[in-house]
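Good day; I would like, with your permission, to put a structural problem before you. What I wish to show you is a protein chain and, alongside it, a tokenised description of its three-dimensional fold. Thank you for your consideration; the sequence and its tokens are set out here:
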Amino acid sequence: MKSPRNVVRCLIQIAFAGASNTGEQVRHWFNFTMLASVHSESRSDDALPVCLGASENPYRLVSLWDMIKAYGHALSTLASILSSFEQISSRVFEKLPEGGYRPHDEEFAGSFVETLKSFMPVMEALHLSFSSMYAKRLIKEWENGGLEGVLQDKMIAVLRERLYDELRTTLFLYIPRELAERYTAPTNGWEEIIGRFPASTMDLEEMNKCYALSRFAAAVFHSVNAIEAALLELGKFLDVRDPKSGWTAITGKLDTLVIRTKFTDLEPRFQACFPFLEQLHGTVGPLKTAWRNKISHVQGRVTVMTADFSPKVSDEIIVATRSFMRRLATEMPIME
């Protein structure tokens, strides 16, 4: 699995290159697979034009195509304005002896200001609020005092740096194609388990979403909570009477039923499902192996001992979790 890709500055990769070959830059940019919302902390229905209501887009993800449809013009204009910044920043404006600047310099600067005016809605759409405020100040200075005041206060250079700084703080979260389903459809493959243990639904959803986001310790934490929900039902079936009923009490009960008690001495209900008890007892071993040095069973409760989980280890734990819970869901007799 790839290393965590927690920040992808796709917007800046287009913009910083300038507008000399914008079409080619957009084509390169299109090679990315999926992006989360620019402002993922926002939960309002209008966080992004492509982020629909919770019922239509519950996971708040937007595809790269949606990004281009919504912001294609804005990104193209952004590349153009940044290219204009480069050009005007490198230009030498010479004052005439009688005052003022050469006509073609005035015309060039005026063209830049008009481009900047057209870019104002784009700044607002991209939530570049500080750049937008300073751009309005620059435009007002131009309209009141012309090129002289703008150049004297180095307002173009200041706006350029402010815009770059704001772009660097606008982050995009990238989810690779092979993990996208874990985020958008986190219960796929867990239907039987959820049907039998509905209390585990939230933790199973969060487990898969955390894994997709490379938050592996969090994924293991939620897998542990999901198993706890199943263990409670298993404890009822096994008639565990330990006041600290949990992993330790249940594994102890399984040892008693499968290893320490003769088949003829078992209760009829346990005799009837003895193959299930044997297989379940055999599943405990691989599960403990996957959790070794990572999970504590102190006082019968399963807890995460460390945040140091590699993708491979956390995936093994999730696979073992599904195997264990599916066996319980499909084979554990239903109590009347």
User: Anything to note?
Assistant: The two ends are 45 Å apart (CA to CA). Residues 182-331 form one domain.
